[in-house]
Amino acid sequence: MAGNKLKLTDQFVTGLQAPATGQAIYWDTHTNGLGIRITATGSKAYVAQGRCNGKSVRVTLARANEINVKEARARAAAATLLMRDGENPVEKKRAHKVAEQTLRQVLDQYVAERRTAFGPLRDSTKEKYEEHVTRYLSDWADKPIAKITHTAVAQRFRKISDHAPVQANIVMGTLRTLCTFAANKSIGADGVPTVLPFNPVVIAFKGLAKYNHVKPRSRRIPTNRIGAVWSLLHERMNLDCHTPNDAQNAALLIALMLTGARFNECATLQWETGVFMDDPDPFIQFVETKMHRTLKLPVTTQLRELLRLQWERRTPGNPYVFVGKTRKAQVKSPYDTLQLVSTAAGTKISAHDLRRTFVQACETVGVQDHIAELLTGHMPKSVTGRHYRESENLTHYIKEAQAVADWYEQQGAIFDAQQRGENVIQLSA
To answer: How far is CA 137 from its chain centroid?
Structure first.
């Protein structure tokens, strides 16, 4: 072992001076494998070094102010004996630490350390993980993750499924991920985790339960109700009849219908980074989409007018296009307005359903499938579409976007005329 060798004493350890840089180790001549390590910051700790399964292993025993030399020798002898017997004390120590970690601690570590191909987890993703634990697994949050059994997992899954089958699947997916993450922190020399060698979620779904089969959603505004919804939302924009918050919620939902964007993409749209009306081809820009790319969308006549009105109604100091109730916030949840939209549509409608409505409108006016996929920020699946999948600037699809917007407006005009009792024909679904 490299380093200085001498007989360690309590007096020597107390008077040990820190090196100028790095660290220094002084090895005890009395007990083989025992050393005192001191860093440039003055931190002192006893270490033990030996060989385990043919590999050199060094383990920290304790800080110098916690034990004396006599205790350090006893611990070093025990540690090196374990090494000779093929038991790695470093792995054992790591496994013990992991075994004591609570679900909440594993979650905090996961969201801090997890990296994707595009970088760290988004704040929205972190919030979802945290919600799953705090809302659905709160009684397990301060429990060691190693003590969560597959039986308990199966029971909790059934309990959540009783009122939220889709959410039950998602929560179990989160728990499985966290258990796998914790297990990977305790992998031994044989490649098998010493803590959670069998993921309790995986075991639960092998025998005691099954994931809920959920039919993919295809919900959207029926074609023959587009006009009613379009008219409703524009009427809610009238500040003579409605509150500024009502108008902002309506404006955001109109934007979703016009762009097919995801709710968070529109809700977080900012004037400085997302709206470019002075460009030769005006566009709005979503900087951070779900697909981790910037997306530039064309501005139709209807969207231009909406943005003009939003600019006039902007709150000084608020960077967002669709402002919330507080000074610097964006629209959070247009729940009340969506309830009215659902009534007008004759079926329950969520913000995401407006995205499907845009795709439906594209189909109705003859927009090619791959272009509809591009405009909604999807990677096209078709052979033709794959040729364009890297495209982020979609302003040249202004004709297609305008066709959709004009169709919406036409449907709204038909509905308004019918409400006035005029003899017009509403298009059927």
So the answer is: 18
Q: How many helices (H) and strands (E) does the chain have?
A: 18, 10
Answer for the pair 208, 151: CB distance below 8 angstroms, yes or no. Answer: yes
Q: Which option is the CATH number for 4-87: 3.30.160.390, 3.40.50.720, 3.40.50.620, 3.50.80.10?
A: 3.30.160.390
The tokens for 258 are 């016009």
Say which amino acid occupies 347: T
Local structure of residue 136 (DSSP, 8 states):
I
The mean pLDDT value for 6-15 works out to 92
CA–CA distance from 188 to each of 54, 61, 87 (Å)? 15, 20, 10
* pLDDT single digits (tens) 397-410: 999 999 999 999 99
429 exposed, middle or buried (CB, 10 Å; 0-12, 13-18, 19+)?
exposed
Task: Tally Cβ neighbours within 10 Å of residue 104.
Answer: 19
Q: Whole-angstrom Cα distance, residue 289 to residue 292?
A: 5
Least confident of 2-6, 151-155, 175-179, 234-238: 2-6
CATH architecture of 223-419: Orthogonal Bundle (1.10)
Residue 218: Cβ within 10 Å count: 8
Q: Which residues of 381-400 are buried (b: 16+ CB within 10 A; e: fewer)?
A: eeeebeebeeeeebbebbeb
Give the whole-angstrom CA distance, residue 273 versus residue 265. 12
CATH superfamily to which 100-207 belongs: Tyrosine recombinase, N-terminal domain (1.10.150.130)
Looking only at the bridges linking them, the beta strands covering 275-276 and 119-120 are: unpaired
For the chain, the first-to-last Cα distance in angstroms comes to 82
pLDDT in tens, 311-323: 999 988 899 999 9
* DSSP assigned state of 138: G
Instruction: Determine what percent of the chain is predicted with pLDDT higher than 90.
Output: 58
> What phi-psi label fits residue 31: left (phi over 0), alpha (psi between -120 and 50 degrees) or beta?
beta
Cα radius of gyration rounded to whole Å, the chain:
31
- Which residues contact residue 314 at a Cβ distance below 8 angstroms, ignoring those fewer than 6 apart? 271, 321, 323
